From TrEMBL:
Pfam families (alphabetical): COX4_pro (PF03626)
Domain of life from the UniProt record: Bacteria
InterPro entries: Caa3_sub_IV (IPR011743), Cyt_c_oxidase_su4_prok (IPR005171)
Membrane topology: Multi-pass membrane protein
Alphabetized UniProt keyword annotations: Cell membrane, Membrane, Transmembrane, Transmembrane helix
Gene Ontology terms: cellular component: plasma membrane
Keyword set includes Amino-acid biosynthesis: no
Database matches in NCBIfam families: caa3_sub_IV (TIGR02229)
Transmembrane domains' residue ranges: 6-25, 32-52, 64-82
Protein name as annotated: Cytochrome-c oxidase
Length: 123
């Protein structure tokens, strides 16, 4: 395959992956959205490094450096995601008092919303 053809194929591949990334950003994938986006970004970064930075033409050293950096990024992102998933949800403990009227409001229908877990006592 000629170098020009390879560059064009990689360029078309990057355009396809960018379009796929954009279209998937419009679709709500729920929990898998982040994983899919990071996977597409990793594939695009690999294509850029191996073809446009000519790592595919070089033996050993540059490939090892790229692979090591990629592994460290994967480890760090994985640790950040694990820590974020293990966080406790912030909560406001229920208080012993009923919700107060909002300042300046005198109508009983316009009471501040109760805190999470608070008993349903009136003012």
């Amino acid at each position: 395959m000629s170098p020009t053809k390879g560059v064009l194929l990689v360029g078309v591949g990057l355009l396809v992956l960018t379009t796929l990334s954009f279209l998937l950003s419009r679709a709500h994938l729920g929990r898998w959205g982040l994983e899919v986006a990071l996977g597409i970004a990793a594939v695009k970064a690999g294509l850029l490094a191996f073809f446009y930075m000519h790592l595919a033409e070089r033996p050993g050293g540059p490939r090892l450096v790229f692979a090591t950096a990629f592994i460290f990024v994967v480890i760090l992102v994985g640790l950040v995601l694990l820590e974020a998933a293990a966080r406790a949800r912030p909560s406001m403990p229920p208080g012993p008092f009923p919700p107060l009227l909002l300042p300046g409001l005198h109508d009983a229908r316009q009471v501040a919303p109760p805190r999470a877990g608070a008993s349903e006592r009136g003012p």
